[in-house]
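To illustrate this point, what follows is a protein record of this kind.

___
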Amino acid sequence: TYTDTKVLTADDSGAVLSPASAAQVYTLPAASDSTGCHFTFISGHSSAHVIKTTASETTLFGAYVHNGGAFGSNSDAFRHVEIDDKTSLTHLAGSAIGDHLFFYCNGTQWIVEGMSHAALTQA
């Protein structure tokens, strides 16, 4: 388990990324070197955590579900959000502890799925 900012390698495959304090940044390894690699992100602190690809790659694809944004919002208002050719995902400040994302690599791109209390900022 990595609780602090970390530049990940293929050797870290299978690790749980669970920030325990303040906003943390996790950098995924190059997709071309990571066929079969996978990571699980579980928020352990409500901050604006970032999960991003290496600078030379734009390879995040997939989707996630969130329940509408502000705390106390209607839990029946789930939204399915596409991730298409992005370099980073950022939790909003005040994200919920327990938000989770799964990252899988097919050697060409990183595929993302998960659930979050609020929308993620995509860049």
The CA atoms of residues 66 and 116 lie 5 Å apart. The two ends are 26 Å apart (CA to CA).
